[in-house]
Amino acid sequence: MAGKIDARLAELGIVLPSPPSPAANYVPTVRTGSLLVCSGQVSAAPGGQAVKGKLGAELTLEQGQEAARICAINLIAQAKAALGDLDKIKRCVRLGGFINSTPTFAQLPLVMNGASDLMVEIFGDAGRHARTTVGVAELPSDAAVEVEAIFEVS
To answer: At a CB cut-off of 8 Å and minimum separation 6, what does 26 contact?
Structure first.
């Protein structure tokens, strides 16, 4: 039987992708005590398509928000792989966002809302989190956005 969070994902029409293997010398998740730390996930959609490019140059704000949403879906997929059951997530504690952007692109927080809004859509009040958002000169494979997460788990 599907859990509450799986049912919510289905209601939102979200199908979790198979989480990708690490591309370098790190692990996708680390569980320590009641925290699950998820390594940064880039804006690669299922099927290998990625939202690539710089916000403020090739990409619009809306494309950036979609890229951040894809990152959040990938984070949830990694959490499910680590925990087996998404109902073990008690709270999204923190998101860290890295936006591939031009130096003058000032809408970084609005881009990250693509990830933040999805956490609240999925987890309700338990999806509200602390957050850091920074603009960067480049991301792996020219990804538009990368997001990392910390979840409190049972």
So the answer is: 39
Token pair for residue 69?
A: 């949403």
Q: How would you write the pLDDT of the chain (154 residues) with one tens digit per residue?
A: 579 999 999 999 999 999 888 889 999 999 999 999 999 999 987 666 789 999 999 999 999 999 999 999 999 999 999 999 999 999 999 999 999 999 999 999 999 999 999 999 999 999 999 999 999 999 998 999 999 999 999 9
**Domains annotated on the chain, with CATH:** 4-16+32-153 (3.30.1330.40)
Pair 100, 142: CB distance under 8 Å: yes
CA distance 30 to 9: 23
Q: What are phi and psi of 96, to 5 degrees?
A: -120, 125
